[in-house]
Write a structure and sequence with these properties.
Its EC number is 5.3.2.-. Keywords: Isomerase. The protein is of the alpha+beta class. It has a single domain, classed as Macrophage Migration Inhibitory Factor (2-Layer Sandwich), CATH 3.30.429. It has a two-stranded parallel ribbon. A two-stranded antiparallel sheet has the order 3-4. The protein is elongated. The termini are far apart.
Length: about 70
């Protein structure tokens, strides 16, 4: 009974894209590990970029450093 938690930023991911993520992850678990798709749970958490950090900075500030490189 696999449980997969996907965390993404909340930047315009569509319902269709989420549907594809859920189906794709479920399929990978079935093909790779032989898991039953009917008992596979996939949860998508959308995180505001101000609540997500990389390189010691909130994502918006981190992205600014990439632009300067």
């Amino acid at each position: 009974m696999p449980y997969v938690n996907i965390k993404i930023t909340d930047e315009g991911v569509t319902r269709e894209q989420k549907k594809q993520l859920i189906a794709g992850v479920t399929e990978v678990l079935q093909k790779t590990l032989g898991k039953n798709p009917k008992t596979t749970t996939v949860v998508i958490d959308e995180i505001n970029v101000d609540n997500w950090g990389m390189g010691g900075l909130p994502v918006p500030e981190f992205r600014e450093t990439l632009k300067q490189s």
